[in-house]
Amino acid sequence: MCRISEAKGYLIDVEGVLVRDKRYHAVPGSPEWFAALTDRGMPRVLVSNNTTHAPESLVEDLGDAGFDVGVDDIVSALAMGAGLLKDWGRTRIQWLGAPHLGDWWRDRGFVLVSAGPCDAVVLGVNPDLTVAQIDVALPALIDHDAELVALHRNLFWLDDSGNRRFGPGFYTSALQEAASREAVVVGKPKERIYREALKRVGIEAQDAVFISDDPVSDLVTAKRLGMGTAFVLSGKYSDHGVLAQLEQEDWPDVIADRPSDLTGHDDEPHQEN
Description:
single chain, alpha/beta, Rossmann fold, 17% strand
């Protein structure tokens, strides 16, 4: 496990760490903390399950919130999912995520269909997803052997009013059961996005610290891969009660109110500020 004071690089979640929720208002102190990492030349990469923003849009919104990042600073479940589907030659898809990203998929060579045979049914965050749309996906999965792809499996997310909404994991579980088909999961907590992020930042897992507001979906995998883990209470959870869902060996190494509180942290395990 890498202690924060010994880290050679950081993997950083976005929503709940840099910004509070879909309003993209900065968590207090996070812009200054992030800028200090940059000034020190500390390798860092954002690891995001965000499926409501194209990476270019995410860069723009983070810039407006005070964070100086580029597309190459982000490892996105959305972009990774598109890359994997392209590699597999599955470019005819039913997109059950945010409708406004339809053109983003088309610009990358995908054909979007609303019903009938397709190569893959792809799930992302969609607050307006209906039962009727889920129904239409079933024939593609059951009768036409489409791949079921979840860009991530978070059960809920915080919308632009700070309200919890059902996430892709909720719908993925239902479709898996109905279609008797295991989903391919792209983002956290699957290892592929962590390994891609480590490659992007150029360090080994034992030299990295992962910072997130979700110890269940994000930090367990990071810890099992050998990273140090920091749980911040600036997003999904306002206290550490969620840790009751985990075995003690999966608990984060450090707990802090917000990322800026990690600066100069003494790395005592499970410390609260």
